[in-house]
TrEMBL record:
InterPro entries assigned to the protein according to its UniProt record, in alphabetical order: DnaJ_domain (IPR001623), J_dom_sf (IPR036869)
The organism's place on the tree of life at top rank: Bacteria
Record-annotated J domain positions: 129-186
Stated name of the protein: J domain-containing protein
SMART domains listed in its UniProt record: DnaJ (SM00271)
Pfam families: DnaJ
Length: 196
């Protein structure tokens, strides 16, 4: 009796049956290697010998005949394994998770109160994204803006993060948001009247 996991391999070709012949014109060698016929029939194969399958593979171009837009679309679909995708955090994002929805058997979060998310719903449309980057609500005064900017600049400065590239990009976004809001606040501030 054979031991488990030591089964002998048997040929899938019946004994005495002829093997496939290479499909390259004029070649009589056995066609042991498969190659797809074209990109629309990837499971339909030619059978070649080693020499001809190598030549076929060198000449194979999956994207031949496609426009740059079709290639880009195909690459985008391949990045998700040809499955539909959607941005993370968009589905069900409106539902509020209360304390009863979180299982906390050790009571770690019993005393902590959730921080209210500051919204920028009433803010001018051009400032909403910038306010979200800084985590601020509207209306905002100059002192509150400056204090928040200093806090974020200290936190995301590359010197404080060992030169981390992601924190450097985050700091650039913070700088752009700060300058945009500061310019807008300058235009909204009442101008001093000039004495004649």
């Amino acid at each position: 009796m054979a031991r488990r996991g030591t089964a002998t391999l048997r040929s899938t070709v019946p004994s005495g049956a002829a093997t496939r012949i290479c499909e390259a014109p004029g070649c009589e060698a056995p066609g042991d290697f498969r190659a797809p016929r074209d990109r629309s029939r990837l499971r339909d194969y030619y059978h070649f010998c080693l020499e001809h399958v190598r030549a076929y593979n060198q000449a194979w171009d999956f994207y031949r005949g496609m426009s740059p837009e079709e290639i880009e679309q195909n690459l985008r679909e391949d990045s998700g394994w040809q499955r539909p995708t959607w941005p993370l955090g968009r589905l069900g994002g409106q539902a509020h998770i209360g304390p009863e929805g979180i299982r906390d058997p050790l009571g770690l979060f019993a005393d902590t109160k959730p921080t209210p998310k500051k919204t920028a719903k009433e803010a001018p449309p051009e400032l909403r994204a910038a306010l979200d980057v800084l985590g601020l609500g509207w209306p905002i005064d100059e002192d509150g803006l400056r204090a928040r900017y200093k806090d974020l600049a200290k936190r995301y400065h590359p010197d404080a993060n060992g030169g981390d590239r992601s924190s450097e990009e985050r700091l650039k976004d913070i700088n752009r948001a700060y300058s945009l809001i500061r310019k807008r606040l300058a235009t909204l501030a009442p101008q001093p009247s000039q004495a004649a």
